[in-house]
Write a structure and sequence with these properties.
Helices cover about 45% and strands about 15% of the residues. With about 280 residues, the protein is α/β, with parallel strands linked by helices. The structure holds 3-methyl-2-oxobutanoic acid. 3-methyl-2-oxobutanoic acid (KIV) binds next to strand 6.
Amino acid sequence: MPKVSIPALAEKRAAGEPIVMVTAYDYPGARAAERAGVDMVLVGDSGAQVVLGYDSTVPVTTDEMLVLARAVRRGTETAFVVCDVPFGSTEVSDAQAVETSIRFVKEAGADSVKLEGGSESRLSRIRAIVAAGIPVVAHLGLTPQTATALGGMRAQGRTGASAAKLVREARGVQEAGAFCLVVEAVPAEITELLRGELSIPIIGIGAGDADGQVLVLNDLLGITEGHTAKFVKRYGSVGDDSVAAIEAYAAEVRSRTFPGPEHRYAATDEAIAAARAELGE
Ligand code: KIV
């Protein structure tokens, strides 16, 4: 399969062929996504919570994200790799946003970066990063990095003012040069209107039918413990399977049934004799 490119993603949109995006945060996750044939892999800052154990996406640093991104890059061949730029790494100035984005391209081999928000300053960041030659995916609707300002982790575009803001911001990010837009936690009817308005692909998460879909890998595999968002669908039970496997291992260690003869190395008579001699036997 050829490497997925921006024109190929645009073609999929034009042909009405859904784009498949999934997050990944490490080499095995990226290998699984690659082997499953997804189009796009997102090194999401959701990794802050699902793999690093933070209670939100806010604390994760660029250096931490770069470790995850490099591992994902090493595990992908054809999938288009998008990296989230973390909170605080683009907010100060356009120059800071360009510097951060360049790090993801040079140090992790990212194909693109993803930026949350559609305010005037965010549009300025998108323009600057695109002008530096780095493709940008925009992210609107529920933007977890600034969830406090949105009143919490809640669906967006449900009131007149919020829906109108979403339309303005969606037009804005496209005009600023984003080649793709992720829309999170938005009523399906509003997503449908945005699809009619924009010419770039819209990837939805909790946003109804769109040009493509994205889910957090740990959520879809069933690794995430406890509450997940309404829009999550679990396709596996890897978390429970992992606990069961570790319990089985622990039980066999405790009962001395593991390791069995097939897991042992055999010593030569010479090695045993030499060890005995060294022990003075
Ligand atoms: O960080 C992430 O996983 C994301 C997706 C929810 C789109 O931004």
